[in-house]
Amino acid sequence: MRFERLILAMGVVMATSMSSAAMALDPAEAIAFCSRISKKDARMECYDQVAAEQAAGRMQTNSAPVQQGFGQPQPQMSAATPTPQGWTPPIGGAPATPRTQAQTPAAGFGAASLPRDQGRREEGGADSIQAQVAASTDNGLGMWRMRLADGAIWQMTERVSLFRPPAPNETVTIRKGALGGYLMDVGKQGSVRVTRVR
Question: Other CB atoms closer than 10 Å to residue 100's CB: what's the count?
Fold first, then answer.
């Protein structure tokens, strides 16, 4: 009983100290930081502190307006945004160049989970995609990494004991899950949690 209280107290102290580092982040990054805390009580304490900091107005927020949606936010143009002379921004922030194979909607699906310098904007608001697998590799821990035909790389985030990896040219379905996660359906197997790596 004392040991459990000691562990709980250590978790709360750890969450408080770690979540204070998260307060310098914007709310979405702070929540993502809290979600990585393994102890339930410490994680809840971190979430509570993020909510309190945001309510008190001490949380940094991005000043640039962003469009909420699935995948990478689309850039917003304002009247104060400098543009080259004679150039008019495209309607809806769409790219002015023609699409290539790498810019298809599947290429941007899940790009919000990528680091900012790697992310590509997603076209549209799809809840799921179907794509062909180019290759599957095992990382040695039973968590597979799948490279899709459009170049996107998805990796399993949890081990599944009887998972059969997709064969080359097999079609998989990747769909949005709860809390910003993604689920991959391979054949008639149960869904597996995945995250986009590239």
Answer: 8
**Distance in angstroms (rounded) separating the CA atoms of residues 121 and 102:** 11
- CA-angle at 130, arms to 126 and 133, nearest 5°: 135
Compute the distance between CA of residue 104 and CA of residue 54 in angstroms, rounded to an integer. Answer: 37
40-56 vs 27-35: helix crossing angle, rounded to 10? 170
Contact (Cβ atoms closer than 8 angstroms) between residue 93 and residue 77: yes
- pLDDT, one tens digit per residue, over 153-185 is 999 888 888 888 888 899 999 998 888 889 999
Are 156 and 189 in contact, with CB atoms under 8 Å apart? no
Cβ neighbours of residue 125 under 8 Å, at least 6 residues apart? 69, 70
- Domain ranges for the chain, please list them: 2-56, 107-196
The torsion angle over the Cα atoms of residues 130, 99, 119 and 146, rounded to 10 degrees, is 30
Residues 6+ apart with CB under 8 A from 86: none
Strands 192-196 and 128-138: unpaired
Residues in the chain: 198
Q: Which two tokens stand for residue 107?
A: 């290429």
Amino acid, single-letter form, for residue 17: S
